User: Fold these one by one.
Assistant:
Number 1:
Amino acid sequence: MLQKAQELLQNHFGYTSFRRGQDQAITSVLEGKNTVCVMPTGGGKSIVYQIPALVLPGTTIVISPLISLMKDQVDTLIQHGIPATYINSSLTAGEAASRMDDARNGKYKLLYIAPERLGSWEFIDDLQDMEIPLIAVDEAHCISQWGHDFRPSYLQISGLADRLPRKPIVLALTATATPKVREDICASLKINPKNTVITGFERSNLSFSVVKGQDRQAYLKDFIKKNEKEAGIIYAATRKNVDQLYEWLQKEGFNATRYHAGMNDEDRNREQERFLQDEATVMVATSAFGMGIDKSNIRYVLHFQLPKNMESYYQEAGRAGRDGLDSECVVLYSSQDVQVQRFLIDQSADRERIAPELEKLQQMVGYCHTEECLQSYILHYFGESDAEPCGRCGNCTDSRETEDVTKDAQMVLSCIIRMGQKYGKAMTANVLTGSRNKKVLEFRLDKLPTYGLMKNRSTKQVNDLIEFLISQELIGVEHGTYPTIYVPEKGKDVLLGKTKVFRKEAVRVKQVSNDDP
Ligand code: ADP
Ligand code: ZN
């Protein structure tokens, strides 16, 4: 079977071989197993369902939420001599009906539909007459509340598979590999988690780094100067931030352009084109920019503020270096950004989304505080467990000596336990630094033996230490009504002196006074 697949790959698409993971996923599907295929954007997921669609008899249904991309996909298939079509809300009722007639007559190898179609009984009825060997669920993370783009209509997919006269194989495809999302996909689509193929998240030409405690504007200016001839993207959190940065960069004489959802279509397209055509080198944008753009020579992606989670971060950072040449991905971190992101999450109308979003934000903050390899941190997050240190990132190349901070860690951990493991990070830092904060006094936390244990450190230093310990999983975070911290088993080992804690960014003891006016 795989040999047939190989021939089809060559004949229809002109590629000589499968990429890592493609053959594995295709084999799994052709063996009749429901399968999850996780590959980064650009990894080559389309081939994974298009080839089986050609091998298997009948019409493969492809479910995709990206209506704007369906037409392109179908046009490309037709160019490659593969009969395909799509049905979505962009068609008139007449067009949709005529395509459906053709589909029922077996005219297509692939039929793309938007998930909303599944809400129509008439549509499901029409499918009953068709031979459907395979349902490919693109952007399968939309099934999960933990994904970044939950779509309720995705929950109807398993019902469709059940209602067809002959049970189709289900193939879920996504670039989101977080364990929780994968669990949801497998549960909803009845896929054995063993049939999961994850590959290709490493980007060996990208160097990641996190910059902390510096004047961001000064850093940015230096950075762009050093890369003046190169194309790069600066991501900022809000439209207002984009406008401010853009105006400032213009004033500083840089060849900048901008993009955000508050601009009209015409301006946005023009600015985007200027960047794509290399007329402007620096694109300042919100995360609205980048979906579906194809510019291979982006040499850096710099996040001026903390991204909201690892998925968005890796997707945005991953726009650098598509051509395979060395490129840089930088996050400028300031702890105030965490408050901003938390506020934005709290504002969200969907109460059920709050806890998952806060947890994802915490993983992003962990990225900014970890001292392990940043590429490995990302790969672990996405479920690739066997990542080796990359040797290129800011942490791998950090030559500072590590220091034993076990004593400091023990102070923090025992304080958390004394506080009953029911308070947040800020309160813990207040108690450790001996703050006279109203809440501290009200809850009588100043009576604890750990009160003021770190009074010679600044609140920021203690906060950073707590974030570091969270990134090491020595402190856990529980996202209830508000986030509280606790000491998991791994942290208890530190308290018991069974394991030591090492850190490069050691807390310098400085005489500071937190509560001075
Ligand atoms: P994804 O859906 O994972 O984002 P695509 O399926 O759009 O990725 O594929 C990304 C690019 O990789 C496309 O240009 C595609 O033609 C190319 N590609 C996919 N598989 C192969 C292969 N086996 N050999 C060479 N190029 C490939
Ligand atoms: Zn590294």
Number 2:
Amino acid sequence: MTLQNEIKKRKTFAIISHPDAGKTTLTEKLLLFGGAIRSAGTVKGKKSGKFATSDWMKVEQERGISVTSSVMQFDFDGYKINILDTPGHEDFSEDTYRTLMAVDSAVMVIDAAKGIEPQTLKLFKVCRMRGIPIFTFINKLDRMGKEPFELLEEIEETLEIETYPMTWPIGMGQSFFGIINRKNKQINPFREEEMLQLNDDYELEAEHAITEDEAYQTALEEFMLVEEAGDDFDKEKISNGDLTPVFFGSALSTFGIEEFLDTYVDFAPMPTARKTASGTEVTPTDEGFSGFIFKIQANMDPKHRDRLAFMRIVSGKFTRGMDAVLARTGKKTKVSRATMFMADDTETVDEAYAGDIIGLYDTGNYQIGDTLHGAGGKKVEFENLPQFTPELFMKVSAKNVMKQKHFYKGIEQLVQEGAIQYYKTLHTNQPILGAVGQLQFEVFEHRMKNEYNTDVVMEPIGKKIARWIENEEDIKESMNSPRSNLVLDRYDNQVFLFENEFATRWFSDKFPEIKLYSLL
Ligand code: GDP
């Protein structure tokens, strides 16, 4: 098969949601459909109870397969679909955001009873910034939830995106009858086998007791309203991420999944191009192999330094044992150990194509954001991955003052690698760490001890609103206060750490001449 045909078959998406909305369950059902697994319950060593965050290393080991479950490939309708998990809960970190840089579309799972929740919103914003298509699966229709119109309105208002329901629910909870499929004018009944066909006037072709049902009549009226007054179906808006196709279903009951997949493969993009540092674009069908690393899974086994670097292939074809160049250093390496992830095991990769995600065994050579390209081919270096605005901060120092050198070397490496962000106080140069999730601090502490032989003392500063400054030259010392604390980032840019929203607003009112901005 030609390179072009292989690439055309690929669809790579991230699944985003707030914890407990049903992300794992939906992933599992998608894999079942794709024939990648034979029975449910194999995707994740699902958390049994709560772990203290400091147990993260143990947790990783106990789960064991958490690496394999973070990227998976399955086949559907002739397509090769790569699904990337975006870890939440205590696993939430910058990696979660960076995963969204490696995909071409996103699937947002919403719990029908809860609507849009905070983590969904955060991840959604990053998808929106990238302008990638977003598909919405409203889950748990087998339970009582919010009314469908209320949910659509919430999506439209909170997320500022148009909606286009591809299916429409008839009732919910106990009285959930099924979904109307807008594409083929069929009703897929929740508790019956046979599909029910509707005619052009949306009447059931064959007689059925449900027509007498009030829930059915209401649903039909609502559906007609959506048909007449709802947003128009617009392919281009979907591709730009301005309109989201919406599906209703129940992941747990494997219901509404096929309707979703059918539309997904029709409208999700094939692998898309990526920008280089010099502003040019690398398209997937470019002959030469290239890719970038967006996540590094630290040593799973504390006895070894081995890590797994996750790479998104941007162009061409990867072949096992190929010679590749690490753009940052210009060094040539033979890439012989790479894996790809199936639901319940990992496989050695012999070949992979643009759009695919592969795991490279790493003994410490790779950093987040690194580019690899085929030796002998064109030199490629992708633009930096974005930095995200941290929300949590910790003062940090070495427990043993004799270990300063190790301490700073460790910090430098971990910061470069993208594990954590580094700041310092203005005059005293007290190191401060910034993160988007608590897990990043735990990982930092653990790796400092194990890899840099340094015990650290961490003192939480808590949640802060970090704002960078456009016109640094106008900053005056007097603007620095405990509620608007001025610090330096790793590039020596000045950053305000505001106590809360109120302090941020107060500052902007008092010093309107200072132009503040946030990273993503
Ligand atoms: P995640 O945290 O988003 O990965 O959510 P899970 O997939 O682990 O689901 C959270 C809980 O919701 C589990 O107890 C699931 O069994 C349950 N769940 C998932 N999908 C459905 C559904 O369609 N209906 C109902 N009633 N429960 C569901």
